């Protein structure tokens, strides 16, 4: 992957997990037998895979390299489907041709998709919604909590060690030689970003080599395996052990600080006084769970790796953090 200076300045971390990307990768993992971490999940999911979602299996291969128009970056199902349905006819045809050439069957349905047949696209829309409801919605809180912890951790690596360490540390098999990121892969491919930038997206389902998507508009996307895959994340508990340890309000402060916030932000979001928010951040800072930095009149706070390690295995459901599924319409 070839970076220009502009590309290096436009490397970003995705702000939220992308439900359509996770759906595509979950559909790929269902078809793979090479990862013992997902073996029990795969066996269970094969039995419960929604019938209405089965057309997705015609589009998504076990490699995860399905149609790019099917997995745009989005915050929810509705805006993601809007992007899917507004894909240009040329992009859809070229993408389906690529996927079918790589081993997906050329069926009557995929032919109709390429022809922009209304009924075929209605089937696709129903498949996506059924797949989300059956595969993702029940575990979306766990996906989101893991994503936020990972994103905060990567941001700290970027701030502390720089972009080289952050990029090459995403997963094994990555090397940065000058302005070229080399990815160990059986595929011989050169990607020239040409100023479009790159968005980094961890996946709770994917465990293979990083996947690179270059879209007609916007930045390229590099999908890499999250440090902790979904199947190794603990089931959510009704009891919050962090709240039991720190107290409910202080645990809520810590949970909010997976993203950088000011004392004023904390006071407003938790509906507490600014002095109370300051006392909580002082205690967390003394425990080395957060770090603080003054900029002018504002003091910015964020979790340390120790703080992230404390909250990452749990799903905070207190007043400071509510992890909801994206709107499904």
Automatic annotation (TrEMBL):
Superkingdom of source: Bacteria
CDD domains per UniProt: HTH_ARSR (cd00090)
Annotated Gene3D superfamilies: Winged helix-like DNA-binding domain superfamily/Winged helix DNA-binding domain
SMART domains: HTH_ARSR
Segments forming domain HTH arsR-type: 230-323
InterPro entries: ArsR-like_HTH (IPR011991), HTH_ArsR_DNA-bd_dom (IPR001845), Metal_resp_trans_reg (IPR051011), WH-like_DNA-bd_sf (IPR036388), WH_DNA-bd_sf (IPR036390)
PROSITE patterns found in the cross-reference section: HTH_ARSR_2 (PS50987)
Key words of the record: DNA-binding, Transcription, Transcription regulation
Protein's name according to its UniProt entry: Helix-turn-helix domain-containing protein
Organism: Streptomyces gibsoniae
């Amino acid at each position: 992957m070839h970076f220009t200076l502009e590309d290096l300045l436009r490397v970003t971390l995705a702000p939220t997990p992308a439900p359509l990307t996770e759906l595509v990768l979950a559909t790929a993992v269902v078809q793979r037998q090479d990862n013992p971490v997902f073996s029990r999940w795969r066996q269970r999911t094969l039995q419960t895979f929604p019938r209405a979602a089965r057309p997705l299996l015609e589009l998504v291969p076990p490699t995860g390299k399905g149609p790019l128009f099917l997995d745009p970056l989005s915050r929810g199902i509705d805006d993601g489907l809007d992007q899917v349905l507004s894909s240009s006819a040329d992009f859809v045809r070229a993408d389906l041709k690529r996927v079918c050439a790589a081993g997906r069957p050329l069926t009557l349905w995929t032919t109709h998709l390429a022809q922009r047949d209304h009924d075929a696209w209605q089937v696709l829309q129903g498949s996506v919604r059924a797949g989300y409801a059956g595969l993702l919605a029940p575990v979306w809180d766990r996906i989101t909590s893991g994503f936020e912890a990972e994103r905060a951790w990567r941001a700290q690596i970027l701030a502390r060690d720089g972009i080289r360490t952050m990029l090459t540390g995403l997963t094994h098999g990555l090397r940065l030689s000058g302005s070229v990121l080399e990815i160990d892969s059986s595929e011989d491919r050169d990607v020239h970003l040409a100023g479009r930038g790159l968005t980094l997206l961890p996946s709770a389902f994917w465990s293979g080599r990083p996947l690179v998507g270059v879209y007609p508009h916007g930045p390229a996307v590099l999908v890499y395996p999250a440090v902790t895959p979904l199947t190794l994340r603990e089931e959510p508990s009704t009891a919050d052990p962090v709240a039991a340890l720190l107290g409910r309000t202080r645990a809520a402060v810590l949970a909010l600080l997976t993203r950088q916030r000011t004392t004023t932000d904390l006071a407003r979001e938790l509906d507490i006084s600014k002095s109370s928010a300051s006392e909580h951040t002082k205690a967390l800072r003394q425990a080395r769970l957060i770090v603080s930095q003054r900029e002018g009149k504002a003091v910015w706070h964020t979790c340390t790796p120790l703080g992230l390690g404390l909250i990452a295995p749990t799903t905070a459901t207190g007043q400071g953090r509510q992890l909801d599924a994206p709107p499904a319409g």
